[in-house]
Write a structure and sequence with these properties.
By secondary structure, the protein is of the alpha+beta class. The chain contains 14 helices and 38 strands.
Length: 715
């Protein structure tokens, strides 16, 4: 495609005019973007010298001399973005109101039974948060409001409460609160009989915790205040000061994440230490919290395992000599791998993802041909069966199942056209019962939309799955705008899901597509291994090939093809912008990880050392050279780039604000086109965006307004 360059003041895309003559094209204001100050910073490693003109932007994070200047630059970019999108303000409000109107404001989750109580959350009309509640013995019993998060969040621009953990005697609630969006939680303890919140306050932790069976000992995961690494598991005794908490485990390997959990049976407390390629568990009798944790199986290079406790044995899911994992078992008193016996063998075409335990059954989650399935096994008889799902593309997941004695599996189901649904599956009778389906207000009809699953051929011949959804009446003539979403990292599976907000896109003529590219785990464990470390570029070329396939098959054209991704998916956006800039009319990059080399060289940045197994350690010369060859920031060139909207958060703990800020500054200094480039920094939020259940829709409205402006859609 020959790119047509027109001044920003009258930016009108000829191709769009031909397709949408019935609309008035959006005219971008004729204003100059901010120009970031150039302050050369020299990086020399492996005899390679690189000049970084915008390294100074890290100073707000580092509390350096340019801290104020860095924030001022972000504010200037926000002002520019606000001016550029000023003509869409009314439309953004229309979109926000429209998306919000589809959400049932007064709603309630499906109750979950545990230890004599039904637990649920409910939302009230006009409220951003929720109330966490329970009823004793029966759903007809009097409601207890355990936490009113709407009240707790008052006066805070961001508020996250999670990790709800009820003591075995049902009298105490431990929960975590983050008011900054840095994922640094303070754990509080509430007496549910008196309503008193104890003075015990455990700072700088993850939100979750685990009660021992004595109802007074709490285990939790402590973080390093600077790097945010999960470094220690501590034991807290109710009524004592945090300073007196005992370290029961300290992780020395900075590439590992650690956490603490409790078996569903209540018998064991587990400490898990896991990196991308290896893991190690420790366990403790939950009745003896002062005992030392025992190592289940010492970590083995390139071996992952996880542990599930049954009444009489442990189950182990492991990839030891089994790339797609297998299921093993061992006695409760003989846990080393020499005692493991095979329950389900390894299969080349089936990925074993996990096990949910019950007193009489286990439910094994498997993935075959890119789709999940549930395999139910009776522990007494060994009889097995699969739960039946009929759609061509869907997503299922094991829901909340805290009752070890239950014979009912709670699971979730969704697809691109099926709203999120909660089912109870009776493992005795094999009957599924729909307990609740997300209610979409405004008359949504699934039959008005069509979903497809197709396969694009990658550069090396690999077939890559692509799932699509569009409104009926769509014609494959190359004239329709299409938004292609991708992620492709950490083995995270990009399963399809329903979004009521997305209807605002589909109803205005867009096709939405999700690419199951390598680096995820859509097609098995090898799919992940073929898209990480020294094979990372497969992720990017897969996505590009998916885009080319959709153009070749006339689902869209280059003039109407858009791409979106966030975090590691934002790295994907940066890479494909560099590698195939003329393929996309526009790109949305959210909290994008785009300064890969500099971030992975700086071990003071949160989570860097945890990521070495994913991206490589640039202190190794081969890893450095490969990383540098694709890192978006390193590879910005003097050439034309597509229209781009980049979104970040000042308090992001996962991908720091300075990565997208530096990237945008470098793009501005090098791009040779007049296409739109905007950076929006949310000054109150972090990696996950807004905490309220409606606030995030404002961000979605901005994204959609950007796409609609490029397409000339004004209402």
């Amino acid at each position: 495609m020959k790119k047509i360059i027109i001044p920003v003041s009258i930016l009108i895309f000829a191709a769009s005019c031909k397709q949408k003559t019935e609309t008035t094209m959006y005219k971008w204001p004729d204003v100059k973007p901010p120009v970031a100050e150039v302050k050369p910073h020299i990086r020399t490693i492996h005899n390679d010298t690189v000049t970084d003109n915008y390294y100074w932007m890290i100073d707000y994070f580092k509390k350096g001399p340019d801290s104020t200047k860095a924030v001022d630059y972000l504010k200037a970019e926000n002002a520019y973005q606000d001016t550029m999108m000023s003509g869409t303000k009314n439309f953004q409000k229309v979109l926000f109101d429209e998306m919000k109107a589809r959400i049932k404001e007064k709603d309630e989750s499906v109750p979950v039974f545990k230890n004599g109580y039904y637990y649920y959350s409910r939302t009230d009309e006009g409220k951003e948060y929720y109330k966490y509640c329970r009823k004793k013995g029966s759903l007809d019993a009097k409601e207890e409001v355990l936490l009113d998060v709407d009240e707790m969040a008052k006066g805070h621009s961001y508020y996250s409460a999670n990790g709800f953990n009820i003591s075995p005697d049902n009298k105490l609630l431990a929960y975590g609160v983050d008011m900054v969006s840095r994922r640094q939680y303070t754990i509080h303890i509430k007496d549910l009989e008196t309503g008193e919140v104890y003075a015990d306050a455990i700072t700088n932790a993850t939100g979750g915790s685990v009660w021992a069976n004595d109802n007074k000992t709490l285990f939790y995961t402590a973080k390093n205040a600077e790097t945010l690494l999960t470094e220690k598991i501590k034991r807290h005794l109710l009524g004592t000061k945090e300073a007196n908490d005992v370290v029961v485990y300290e992780e020395k390997d900075k590439s590992n994440y650690i956490g603490v959990d409790k078996s569903k049976s209540g018998s064991f407390i587990f400490i898990q230490s896991s990196a991308t390629l290896s893991s190690e568990f420790r366990y403790l009798d939950a009745n003896k919290p002062n005992d030392a944790f025992k190592v289940f199986q010492p970590r083995i290079k390139d071996v992952l395992y996880s542990v599930t406790a049954l009444a009489d044995k442990f189950l182990i899911v492991t990839n030891q000599n089994a790339i797609n994992f297998k299921l093993m078992e061992c006695p409760l008193d003989k846990t080393e791998s020499s005692n493991w016996k095979e329950v389900l063998p390894h299969r080349k075409d089936v990925l074993l993802e996990g096990v949910e335990e019950f007193k009489d059954y286990i439910v094994i989650t498997e993935r075959k041909s890119g789709l999940n399935q549930f395999r139910v096994r009776n522990l007494a008889s060994g009889a097995e069966h699969y739960v039946d799902f009929k759609e061509a593309a869907y997503a299922i997941y094991v829901g909340a199942n805290p009752d070890y004695n239950s014979k009912v599996l709670r699971y979730g189901y969704t697809s691109l056209t099926t709203p999120s649904s909660t089912f109870d599956y009776n493992m005795d009778t094999k009957a599924s019962k729909l307990m609740k389906q997300q209610e979409v207000l405004g008359g949504y009809k699934a039959d008005d939309y069509v979903t497809e699953r197709v396969y694009a051929t990658a550069t090396d011949g690999t077939k890559v799955p692509v799932s699509l959804v569009y409104k009926k009446g769509f014609e494959k003539n190359g004239k329709t705008p299409l938004l292609l979403y991708g992620y492709g990292s950490y083995g995270y599976t990009n399963d399809v899901y329903f979004s009521s907000a997305r209807l605002s896109l589909l109803d205005r003529g867009f096709v939405f597509a999700m690419a199951g590219i390598r680096g995820g785990q859509e097609m098995g464990r090898q799919w992940y291994l073929d898209g990480k470390l020294m094979k990372k570029k497969n992720t990017f070329t897969d996505f590009i090939d998916c885009g080319k396939y959709l153009v070749d098959q006339k689902y869209t054209s280059k003039e109407h093809l858009y791409a979106e991704g966030g975090s590691a998916g934002g790295l994907l956006m940066g890479a494909v912008a560099n590698m195939a800039p003329d393929l996309w009319h526009g790109i949305i990059a959210e909290v994008p990880f785009v300064d890969v080399v500099n971030t992975m060289l700086d071990e003071s940045i949160p989570l860097t050392t945890n990521e070495f197994d994913e991206w490589g350690n640039p202190k190794n010369e081969d890893a450095y050279k490969y990383m540098k060859s694709y890192s978006p920031y390193e590879n910005v060139e003097k050439k034309a780039y597509p229209n781009m909207l980049v979104v970040t958060g000042l308090h992001d703990s996962q991908v720091q604000y300075f990565e997208p800020a530096k990237w945008v500054a470098k793009l501005r200094a090098n791009k040779t086109d007049n296409n739109v480039l905007m950076l929006h920094t949310n000054m109150d939020y972090g990696h996950g965006g807004a905490s309220g259940r409606f606030d995030y829709l404002k961000e979605e409205a901005l994204n959609y307004a950007f796409l609609f402006a490029l397409e000339g859609v004004e209402k």
